């Protein structure tokens, strides 16, 4: 049975310069759009969307012992430092512990004005809340590090963006909401004691193995490098574009964080930009590894009062090899190749070139390649206008696969390889057109498509034949959509 005593709040015990306490501003007539029952069960919460006191606690309508707080941070936005950032439309309500004794923040997004709203209204609209909820669940289903959500609610409160829209709430969950920008805030405001305290708490809470190191701050930064590199490798391997990789949107624990104008690739296009405000193409798909390193360098600068410059540079130098290692591991799994050969780099690069030049859907190609044991190679070749070019690459690929052996020295069969590939190459992803259809229906009061997509994307690698239409390629209007930060 849930009780308010199940909440803790370690961040509220830190000095007042870390945050501002804010009383949430309730929305009118809130009601559930979707409740993440499977995830909620991990925290001892009910299977059904709660009502009564628990709903009021989760939505900020009833106060806990500790008043919710808005965290203070800063950040580089499109490469320009902005000191005036913080939780502008979200509040840290408290913490919940799951069945594995892991502590998660409960963060309520869309609950009104804070000191960091920067003339905004502190609200979230229904469409952006649906997109974040669905994408965080889609990423979790794919095995990509991400924040999660307990659920989301809609209200009768109207919020004005380009038009009047319904206000909504997202109950976001993560082991931490601490960002690169938290460290930048204390560094640039010359609050070095507070910066050290923040680093100490991050180590204690999230990098406890670093406590055994002679240089715990270095050990912490090494793990930040490792986790960030692995996250970016997942993004690149699965065709995910974040859209706004500002340092205030970078989680210190390497989780995908702050979903705005995100997109999964349709046709493979390394230059794809999903954020229509990104005029300089700073956050294009193929720029994400470079920007991650840029952001880590900004974080390193903010840690320079704790770690010497020479060591920071040495640790930063590990990022690209670490990213390459993880990306190679993921792509080998997606192509069913376990061993490493020097020629594999060319196999990968020629595949990406072929997909780009032939404008081939990235997810569909890899799923069809995973099914040649069932459908043969024609289904793959039918994707291409130039079948001859595709045949050349496919011949090279299948010859390479014949060099993969089992532990007993036998060639791995097509069936064995493809079964393994289907476990890592999804049939279903959250294409933007699918999210838009769900949003359009939700704005008419029908939330069934949100629930249907949420259920579907929990199991993206399963065939789910009754849901096969959700694996269709996007219509012309829904292809390579460009979105705004309020999306």
UniProtKB/TrEMBL annotation:
Q: What Enzyme Commission number(s) appear in the record?
A: 2.7.7.-, 2.7.7.108
Q: Please list which residues make up the signal peptide.
A: none
Q: Which cofactor does it need?
A: Mg(2+); Mn(2+)
* tRNA-binding among keywords: no
Report the protein's function: Nucleotidyltransferase involved in the post-translational modification of proteins. It can catalyze the addition of adenosine monophosphate (AMP) or uridine monophosphate (UMP) to a protein, resulting in modifications known as AMPylation and UMPylation.
**Similarity comment:** Belongs to the SELO family.
Q: What is this protein called?
A: Protein nucleotidyltransferase YdiU
- Which species does the entry assign this protein to? Vibrio brasiliensis LMG 20546
Q: Which gene encodes it?
A: ydiU
């Amino acid at each position: 049975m849930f009780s308010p005593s199940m909440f803790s709040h370690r961040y509220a015990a830190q000095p007042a310069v870390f945050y501002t306490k804010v009383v949430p501003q309730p929305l009118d007539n809130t009601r559930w759009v979707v409740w993440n029952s499977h995830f909620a069960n991990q925290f001892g919460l009910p299977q059904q969307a709660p009502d009564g006191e628990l709903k009021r606690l989760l939505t900020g309508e009833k106060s806990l012992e500790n008043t919710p707080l808005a965290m203070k941070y800063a950040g580089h936005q499109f490469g320009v430092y902005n000191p005036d950032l913080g939780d502008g439309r979200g509040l840290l309500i408290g913490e919940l512990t799951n069945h594995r004794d892991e502590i998660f923040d409960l963060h309520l997004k869309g609950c009104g004005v804070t000191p960091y709203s920067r003339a905004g209204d502190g609200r979230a609209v229904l469409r952006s809340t649906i997109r974040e909820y669905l994408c965080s669940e889609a990423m979790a289903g794919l095995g990509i590090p991400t924040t999660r959500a307990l659920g989301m609610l809609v209200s009768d409160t109207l919020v004005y963006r380009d038009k009047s829209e319904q206000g909504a709430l997202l109950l976001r969950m993560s082991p931490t909401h601490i960002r690169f920008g938290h460290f930048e805030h204390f560094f640039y405001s010359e609050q070095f004691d507070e910066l050290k305290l923040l680093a100490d708490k991050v180590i204690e809470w999230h990098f406890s193995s670093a406590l055994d190191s002679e240089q715990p701050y270095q050990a912490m930064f090494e793990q930040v490098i490792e986790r960030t590199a692995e996250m970016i490798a997942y993004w690149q391997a699965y065709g995910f574009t974040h859209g706004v990789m500002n340092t205030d949107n970078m989680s210190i624990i390497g989780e995908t964080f702050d979903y705005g104008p995100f997109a999964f690739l349709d046709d493979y296009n390394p230059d794809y930009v999903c954020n229509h405000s990104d005029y300089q193409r700073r956050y294009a798909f193929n720029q994400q590894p470079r920007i991650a390193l840029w952001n880590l360098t900004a974080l390193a600068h903010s840690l320079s009062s704790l770690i010497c410059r020479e060591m920071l540079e040495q640790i930063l130098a590990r990022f690209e090899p670490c990213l390459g290692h993880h990306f190679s591991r993921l792509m080998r799994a997606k192509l069913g190749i376990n061993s490493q050969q020097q020629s594999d780099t060319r196999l990968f690069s020629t595949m990406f070139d072929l997909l780009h030049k032939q404008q081939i859907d990235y997810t569909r190609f890899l799923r069809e390649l995973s099914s040649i044991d069932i459908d043969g190679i024609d289904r793959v070749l039918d994707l291409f206008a130039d079948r001859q070019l595709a045949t050349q690459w496919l011949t090279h690929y299948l010859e390479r696969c014949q060099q993969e052996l089992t532990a007993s020295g036998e060639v791995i069969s097509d069936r064995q390889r493809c079964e393994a590939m289907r476990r890592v190459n999804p049939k279903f992803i959250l294409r933007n057109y699918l999210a838009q259809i769900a949003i359009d229906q939700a704005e008419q009061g029908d939330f069934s498509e949100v629930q249907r997509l949420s259920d579907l994307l929990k199991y993206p690698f399963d065939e789910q034949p009754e849901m096969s239409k959700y694996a269709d390629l996007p219509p012309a209007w829904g292809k390579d959509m460009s979105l705004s930060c309020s999306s």
